[in-house]
Design a protein that fits this description.
The chain is an alpha/beta fold. Helices cover 45% and strands 18% of the residues. The protein has a 7-stranded mixed sheet with strand order 9-8-7-6-10-11-12.
């Protein structure tokens, strides 16, 4: 399936998008049918149904998934999301993206992903804890430091990771910190982890600016999403000299052509629950804000925000994908025609999984690094990976996304051949 053969009806299906990009990279690499089948099929898909007694005494049954796409290069790695719209297709797509993401930054993990269909906003902490512990118990034979290492994702956090770690440790009869990453510092979390995805976005953006002959001080940035990734990227980029002119959230956007005071905006959001009505900027339509003239557009929220219906209106020079799958395959073609320098998600937001890898290493060593060392090692991996992707793009005369996918597929296919799966 090529990007061209994707219809408008299924343009936003994440599994279809993942398959289209996989097929294009596999075709360009000349992978045989057997290897395509191995790389294109998840190794394991687990569906569980989780009974939970709610606070009012009712019994509810929730459906959860864990997909392990590949374990050829190491244990599966990937987040767990709690959301009402979780689907098996989405979890499959995200698991495959994790395989390619880990391979593109060359860390020894495969791809995994999990999700539970629920609405965390209507569940109490007690109900969430019961749900998390029961979900963990149901998948316990399939996870572990050598098998599959979950992490936080949409609507999950370090508290949820602590519950998973504790449940797993109870069954193992000893403390197993390395079963999850994104944990609280006190329980074996890593310094630098909360900032890692946003910091990684900034690092690759700096590399892109350098390649295009621009300086951070002269660069205007628009960020869509003000959560962990977008908020951290905004804070770190401002400190580095970038001018963050607009922040876009689900309920509106705030704009200041001279640059927003990010710390003040974060305080305003904490006090009011929204970025709108901020004294240090003007409110604007969130849809129009995506089309502001800027040097860097950083989508850091959800999937499919850049699609065939709006890609031609984008006026950014660099698109740095902080979210997973923010751009559809049909939009890629438009961006290529416009000459936008795309830093694809499997590279741009890989800072998070890279420092998760560091956390896993530290847990297994029982020896923890200071933040300077974490950030130095992150920068080394992100800059080397950026250079490898751009070099691959230039060598094979393809765009950056296709190059990143080809590089990742190449590395995983090579690992499978070395392991002798055909024997």
């Amino acid at each position: 399936m090529s990007a061209v053969s994707i219809s408008l009806e299924n343009e936003k299906n994440p599994w279809v998008a993942a398959a289209a990009r996989f097929d294009e990279a596999a075709s360009r690499l000349g992978l045989d049918d057997g290897m395509r089948k191995v790389l294109g099929t998840p190794a394991r898909e687990i569906t569980v149904h989780i009974p939970v007694q709610l606070d009012d005494g009712r019994l509810e049954v929730f459906t959860g998934y864990r997909v392990q796409h590949s374990v050829a290069r190491g244990p599966a790695k990937g987040g767990i999301r709690f959301a009402p719209d979780v689907t098996l297709d989405e979890v499959r797509a995200l698991a495959s993206w994790m395989t390619w993401k880990c391979a593109v930054v060359n860390i020894p993990f495969g791809g995994g992903k999990g999700g539970v269909i629920c609405n965390p906003s209507v569940l109490s902490d007690t109900e969430l804890e019961k749900l998390t512990r029961r979900y963990t118990a149901e998948i316990i034979d399939f996870i572990g430091p050598e098998r599959d290492v979950p992490a936080p994702d949409v609507n999950t956090n370090e508290k949820v990771m602590a519950w998973i770690m504790d449940t797993y440790s109870m069954h193992a009869r000893h403390t197993v910190t390395a079963v999850v990453t994104g944990k609280p510092m006190t329980l074996g979390g890593s310094r630098g982890r909360p900032e890692a995805t946003g910091r990684g976005c900034m690092m690759v953006t700096l590399k892109a600016l350098e390649k295009l002959g621009k300086r951070p001080e002269d660069s205007r940035v628009v960020i869509q999403g003000f959560g962990n990734v977008g908020g951290m990227a905004a804070k770190l980029m401002t400190a580095r000299g970038f001018k963050v002119v607009c922040i876009i959230e689900y309920d509106g956007a705030v704009y200041n052509p001279k640059g927003l005071d990010i710390a003040a905006l974060q305080r305003h959001r904490k006090e009011t629950g929204s970025i709108t009505g901020f004294a240090g900027g003007e409110d604007m339509d969130k849809t129009e804000a995506m089309f502001l003239d800027c040097d860097v557009l950083l989508p850091a929220a959800t999937e499919n925000v850049i699609h065939s219906g709006n890609a031609d209106k984008l006026r950014c020079k660099i698109l740095c994908e902080g979210a997973n799958g923010p751009t559809t395959p049909l939009a890629d073609e438009v961006l290529a025609e416009k000459g936008v320098f795309v830093i694809p998600d499997i590279l741009a937001n890989a800072g998070g999984v890279t420092v998760s890898y560091f956390e896993w290493v530290q847990d297994r060593q029982g020896y923890f690094w200071n933040e300077r060392l974490v950030n130095e090692r992150l920068e080394e991996i992100m800059t080397e990976s950026f250079d490898a992707v751009v070099r691959y793009a230039e060598t094979h005369n393809v765009n950056n996304r296709t190059a990143a996918n080809m590089l990742a597929l190449d590395r995983v296919a090579y690992a499978i051949k070395l392991r002798g799966i055909y024997a």
